[in-house]
Recover the amino acids of this structure.
């Protein structure tokens, strides 16, 4: 039952090239930066990442992006990363953009054993009709576009028909998350907004690795306080105080003195 691994390097040692990773975090808040760095140092490549965004230039998933380790991204926001935009527009990176709530529910469905679900989000747009660029060619033409999705009419609150779009679940080979507190059995607690996509990434990973800022003994986390049950987590990495304190800010807005 003790799931603690000696180091981040040991925790990610069996992640192969070509693997799919579900990565927690929102912007730079709650990202598993130590595990990402360990994957970078391991040298694996041709990775697909499922994450809200791709970090920023040179931090978070941006570290893997700059090193050309990412083949494909499934995400909902990419606006803070210039290298991401460059690789996408030049055909070096494949990108499947999702409405943010749809991405979250696809990840949750993957961890809940739900194959697919209908949502009104995206109905009547290219999300449903297909044709969104997934990968560009070097000349700027669309090399790969999103396929059309199944749609169905369901009654709305007024009893009128409304188009709903069928979205499939997302599952990853590995889930990477960061928690504020975790015990040796893998039960996790996130702090405030750092929870964000972390519980969803933990659910949809077949093997989930959690880096925790504070490691405690089993029983020290009350059952009602657990955000991610240990059944979803296979490996736990305890961070050093220095690693736990290394939390970067995307943008600073300050008042001049």
């Amino acid at each position: 039952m003790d799931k603690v691994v000696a180091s981040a390097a040991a925790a990610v040692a069996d992640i192969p090239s070509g693997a799919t990773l579900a990565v927690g975090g929102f912007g730079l808040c709650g990202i598993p930066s130590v595990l990402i760095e360990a994957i970078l140092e391991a040298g694996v490549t041709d990775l697909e990442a499922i994450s809200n965004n791709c970090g920023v230039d040179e931090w978070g998933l941006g570290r893997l992006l700059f090193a050309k380790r990412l083949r494909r991204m499934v995400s909902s926001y990419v606006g803070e990363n210039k290298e991401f935009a460059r690789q996408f527009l030049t055909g070096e990176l494949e990108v499947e953009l999702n409405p943010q709530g749809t991405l979250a529910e696809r990840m949750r469905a993957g961890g809940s054993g739900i194959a697919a679900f209908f949502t009104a989000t995206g109905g009547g747009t290219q999300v449903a009709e297909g044709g969104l660029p997934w990968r560009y060619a070097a000349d700027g033409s669309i090399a790969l576009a999103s396929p059309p999705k199944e749609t169905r009419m369901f009654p709305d609150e007024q009893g009128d028909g409304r188009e709903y779009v069928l979205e499939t679940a997302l599952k990853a080979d590995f889930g990477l998350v960061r928690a504020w507190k975790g015990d040796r059995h893998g039960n996790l607690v996130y702090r405030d907004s750092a929870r964000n996509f972390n519980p969803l990434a933990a659910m949809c990973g077949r093997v989930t690795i959690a880096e925790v800022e504070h490691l405690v003994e089993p029983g020290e986390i009350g059952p009602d306080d657990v955000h991610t049950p240990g059944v979803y987590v296979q490996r736990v990495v305890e961070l050093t105080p220095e690693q736990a304190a290394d939390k970067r800010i995307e943008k600073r807005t300050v008042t001049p003195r």
